Amino acid sequence: MTKKCLLSFCFLLSFCTSVFCVSYSEKSWRILEQAQVCFDSGNYGDAFKFAREAFVSRKNEAENEFNVLDKAISPAQVRRAGDEFSAVLKVLKEREQKEAVDIIEKYLKLYGSSYYKNSIHNMLDWLKERNVYPEADYLTGKIYQVEGEYAQALSFYERAYSEKDYLDVSDVQYEILYSIGFIAKINSDFEKFEKTLLLILNSDEFFKNELLKKSITKAISGDKKENVDRIFLLYRADSKYSLMALSELGDLYENRKESKKALECSALAAVESFTHILTAIEQRNSQFKYTSLEKFFEECKKYEEILVWAQKNDVWNVFYQLAKRAGANGNIIFAQAMYSVMADSVPDSYYRSLSASQLNSGF
Questions:
Q1: How far apart, in whole angstroms, are the C-alpha atoms of residue 207 and residue 264?
Q2: Which of 171, 249, 274, 361 has most Cβ atoms within 10 angstroms of its Cβ?
């Protein structure tokens, strides 16, 4: 996992986090926002100070919310209403328990009633344990990482991941996992690196679909020129956080000489990249219909934002690795056809040249 790729992924998650958290009035979040500003400007001392202040503030907020809610639902009138949120909220509103109502509604908006199994007491138990602040721990880990203190960074990353049930934005857990993987790779702890990548991919229904993966690789193993276009005609897969993990896992398996696993990762990564871009193209040009990989690449060139996304996510390398690993598995005709398409039409000049070199060398 390159530092550039990690930073691109973190930027995306940080942007999403700021969008979802902007409605927060909690003091802890505002302190953490100060910490993030300091971190982004390279003021790591103040970033650390504010991150720890945010942690203490969140702990105090959680204790206060627990006490308010515990007191509000203790009277017999409220207890008789039962355990379901709708009934409890009705009584609390009648009793003008505004602070308790606001607390309940805030967390229902964030997590939904099903998260607490529609139980006020489950929410109360959850609040009792909410004396953690995984976002603050994660930022503290990033501070240690930029200072080169990888052991300390990993400790805070792992703590933040263990507290993932209390993240304000659940998807930040993937950013945390990528950071854990980054440290594992730096430390050459490839067993931990693999486990972390697999944790990320555990949420990818397409990665867990063995029949899908086998079908794609079977088409590659058929070793026919026309299968290059057919794969992208037949298969669709798009998972929000998988692409970097698939690419890294493919590299890991290639280094271990596990060529079939490496090809499997590359094939799924290529299909997921293709699906994501195709969706973006169709949103911009409803008349476009996929017919061949060459025409797909040509269409990509028309949209600057697609090219920027592809470059940030190393997408053209994903397609190149598919050709390379197909060749390594003995699927020479498929690999030649893939290289030929890329040499003629892939949007990136570097990968056009690299693909042409592979064709000329006979790889």
A1: 10
A2: 249
pLDDT digits (tens, 9 = 90+) for 201-246: 999 999 999 999 999 999 999 999 999 999 999 999 998 899 999 9
d(CA 312, CA 299): 18
Q: What is the pLDDT of residues 165-207, one digit of tens each?
A: 999 999 999 999 999 999 999 999 999 999 999 999 999 999 9
Residues 6+ apart with CB under 8 A from 39: 47, 139, 142, 143
CA–centroid distance for 38 within its chain: 24
Question: What pTM did the predictor assign?
Answer: 0.84
Three-state SS string over 201-226 comes to HCCCCCCCCHHHHHHHHHHHHCCCCC
Closest CA relative to residue 263, chosen from 324, 212, 202? 324
Q: Which two tokens stand for residue 273?
A: 């990249």
Residue 330 in tokens: 């003995």
What 121-127 contacts at long range (C-beta under 8 Å, 24+ apart), as own/partner pairs, is: 121/83, 123/69, 123/85, 124/66, 124/69, 124/70, 124/73, 126/165, 127/62, 127/65, 127/66, 127/69, 127/103
